[in-house]
Give the backbone structure.
Amino acid sequence: MAGSAVSESENGDYVSSFARGLEVIRAFTRAKPSMTLSEVADRTDMHRAAARRFLLTLVREGYVETNGRYFRLRPKILELGFTALSSMDIWDVAQPVLNDLSEKLSESCFAAVLDGDSAVYVARAASRRVMNVGINVGSRVAAHAVSTGRVLLSGLGERELDDYLAGVKLAKFTPSTVTSKVKLRSIIEETRRQGWSIVDQELEAGLRAISVPIRDRSGTIKAALNVCCPSARVTPDEMRTRVLTELMDSAQRISLALP
């Protein structure tokens, strides 16, 4: 994970048990929506007894459910994310633009922000096509394997990027996934220069996506705007021409409306 953790000894205001509880929540992913106690303990590097206490507390509070063996998040967990999103004026601006973009291209469109090693999708506009991309608001994916992530990583300073690359584990999702840190750095630097990123079937076979930055008035990258579609439907050339033109125009509309 990029950055250094703050220990309780370094900061008396830091509540380590609360932080560990958040780790338990983040352990559940799209790929692992249901896990045993042992799996949660392993993914969070906790003792089973500690993981059990956190899980049972979350069960009692209504954020997790269990059948006695497997645990999974309940819909109530979304309240935490939606509370944060509702306070971010950017999404009030972005959603109608995403809707227009999706209508123009007849493809699914997304906005994402960077959270540690992950890109988290915070806004979505689905196309009317029968075949849609299965990414929902709140979905969290490895930043290195998606175009949104690479755009967001391109907005990091050199020291922050160094920290990210030093700590991240580059999981291989498909035969096309970039797992070389040297190559990933080169791709991120290229993304920074050209202002957009295309990722072709690195997260999931048959899925192609393109992203551009959403910037505030100071030029800081606040989010990434994304079009994602089945690779059989849109060619890389179409991505770089028709789709990129519409995507950049939409990102500019959102950026100009930001404070």
